[in-house]
Amino acid sequence: RRVYLDHNATTPLAPEAAQAVRDAMSQAWGNPSSSHPAGRKAKELISSARESLARLVGGRPEDIVFTSGGTEANNMVIHAACRHFHESQAGLGDSWGTPHIVTSNVEHDSIRLPLEQLVKEHLAEATFVPVSPQSGRAEVDDVLATIRPTTCLVSIMLANNETGVIMPVADLSQRIRALNQRRAAEGLPRILVHTDAAQMIGKGRVDVQELGVDYLTIVGHKVWPCSQCPAAVPPLRHLSCGARETLGALHSLIPHQWPKFSCWMVRAACDPRVFRVCCFFQASFGKQRIHFNSHFTGSKRLCNTSNFSILGPGLQGRRVLSRCKMLLASVGAACHSEKGDRPSSILLSCKIPYDVAQNALRLSVGRDTTRADVDLVVQDLVQAVAQLDQDQAL
């Protein structure tokens, strides 16, 4: 038996989602831009999906833009903000200079890499704000301290994919809104706010109005409907997307299945046997042998995410997982899976010691995780560590 605890990477395809896709492919296979019945049916499904997603995140249907995935959506936001910066100074010459973007040093590669490329090509400037080693968050004052006259975008993820730490995005948006009023009086460009909510959706409340953001990214494959469900980016006030939106099959799942999933997450968050997995590991390995990499003073975390290290030589996370017979998990973000025993850059950015970060394991549960699964995982890890300890002794 295998126990899958890597839901932050992606989630299994729900049977309801598979059925919805099959129904769409057989009944609504037309081009949604065509006027014949098959095309109209596809357009109806897309419209329904758009309305359901809008209700889900407190946005408007016309603000939803479907893309091929979260990476494309985040890239669109970055380039749209830069374009808006240049369009806003039309007729003013180049008085504002090069667009400046602020983000944190624990963002997903779909934010970090395009920013690094834009900087390399001298098309933008970027500041990567270090998270606080005490809270694991990008603190509002630290972000605001990096603002320049040329700043056009602040992009801070809503919840970190490795530590589960929830960022103060709503507070940040409120402060930037007040700052924008002063900037407008000074003739400076408006600062847009974006948050990547890929990890938060389905695990906590996501509402664009409450967050006060201009852009928000959500990703379907993180919340079990479909590994190929497109990302949605509401509300894109400064971006038009002309791509055909051809996947609306999952609209029926959202209003009917989402409340069930949300209720499950709330119940499970109160179940220590499922979500306080570290307590079991402490009991099994001893307090001195477990380091919690995702516990920060005063910070809230995702209810499904646990990141910890089993301390000791030869217990690198990859080696431990290779000895597990049942556990399917990861040592961090899936996009870093080919980096060998190099510690997670996210954990290092949170000031986790190098040798501790090397031993990190990230366990993330989902809607089908049971108490029995957790018990099996604990047993599996205990046996794997015992084998590695024995190898080390020899």
From TrEMBL:
<comment type="subunit">
    <text>Homodimer.</text>
</comment>
<dbReference type="GO" id="GO:0009000">
    <property type="term" value="F:selenocysteine lyase activity"/>
</dbReference>
<protein>
    <recommendedName>
        <fullName>Selenocysteine lyase</fullName>
        <ecNumber>4.4.1.16</ecNumber>
    </recommendedName>
</protein>
<keyword id="KW-0808">Transferase</keyword>
<dbReference type="GO" id="GO:0005829">
    <property type="term" value="C:cytosol"/>
</dbReference>
<dbReference type="InterPro" id="IPR015421">
    <property type="entry name" value="PyrdxlP-dep_Trfase_major"/>
</dbReference>
<comment type="similarity">
    <text>Belongs to the class-V pyridoxal-phosphate-dependent aminotransferase family.</text>
</comment>
<dbReference type="GO" id="GO:0016740">
    <property type="term" value="F:transferase activity"/>
</dbReference>
<keyword id="KW-0963">Cytoplasm</keyword>
<dbReference type="InterPro" id="IPR015422">
    <property type="entry name" value="PyrdxlP-dep_Trfase_small"/>
</dbReference>
<dbReference type="InterPro" id="IPR000192">
    <property type="entry name" value="Aminotrans_V_dom"/>
</dbReference>
<dbReference type="InterPro" id="IPR015424">
    <property type="entry name" value="PyrdxlP-dep_Trfase"/>
</dbReference>
<keyword id="KW-0663">Pyridoxal phosphate</keyword>
<dbReference type="InterPro" id="IPR016454">
    <property type="entry name" value="Cysteine_dSase"/>
</dbReference>
<dbReference type="Pfam" id="PF00266">
    <property type="entry name" value="Aminotran_5"/>
</dbReference>
<comment type="function">
    <text>Catalyzes the decomposition of L-selenocysteine to L-alanine and elemental selenium.</text>
</comment>
<keyword id="KW-0456">Lyase</keyword>
<feature type="domain" description="Aminotransferase class V">
    <location>
        <begin position="3"/>
        <end position="223"/>
    </location>
</feature>
